[in-house]
Amino acid sequence: MNTRRDAHTDAMLRHLGAAYYDSLHGRASKxxxxxxxxxxxxxxxxxxxEHPGTAGRPxxxxxxxxxxxxxxxxxxxxxxxTVDRITPFKEIATLLADHKISAVPVLSMGRKxxxxxxxxxxxxxxxxxxxxxxxxxPRRQHWWxxxxxLGYTAAKLMTAPAITIHPDATIPAAARLLNDxxxxxxxxxxxxxxxxxxxxxxxxxxxxxxxxxxxADDARQMIAPLLGGPPDATVRVxxxxxxxxxxxxxxxxxxxxxxxxxxxxGVVTVLDKxxxxxxxxxxx
Length: 284
Description:
Blueprint: H1 3-24, H2 30-45, H3 72-75, E1 83-84, H4 89-99, E2 103-108, E3 112-118, H5 119-123, H6 131-134, H7 154-157, H8 171-181, E4 185-189, E5 195-200, H9 201-204, H10 212-227, E6 233-238, E7 241-246, H11 254-262, E8 269-274
Parallel strand pairs: 1-2, 7-8
Antiparallel strand pairs: 2-3, 4-5, 6-7
């Protein structure tokens, strides 16, 4: 028995477990978890002997090639319909109808996102509070709080500042923003605020179109260093639902393994069918 090797492996497993639980409480990112997992894999690959389930398994050699590879930049649309601050109401409404979209970014100086005009912003003009403005007599406490002579332009209609997202943000982060702000589309901007794309709810849902076989491969690679391969741990995927079964030698790592699988792109839910270890002496 190589006690030094076992102690090193246990230390790496503890580090992975700590990274995973910290990620659940916002103290670590998924990148930290992935890095800890790669360290464990590298350590196992560099040790003599074969770890269960790892023989013949291709190694992930660089960040971004694992099951968390999908980011906003992978699903966003780069051809974006936009308007500028002086675009009139009717032209905006026509753009939304013609392109079957729910909102358009408003650009300042042709590149930076100043705001967003949505269908809701346009429909707001039909509310009773806007009637005096449509008649040409804006009230002193008008909800636009700007000069009447600008008319129905994007600068008047837009919601500002715009809710935006970075291209390297995760799919769940984008989904949370959309849900939290009850919007359908997010402009994607670079660090300087320049528009580089847009992502919608339907774009985010494309990650769930991944084939079951692809998800299963990712799941097996993810948990092999923790629970081993068949027969210690088996993975089946149907319609994005992952079922993990078997009787691994480290049941204490099962929650970590299941949590890692749950974060794989395309996974709808994870079913735990892990059998408890038989008590010592059973069957004698």
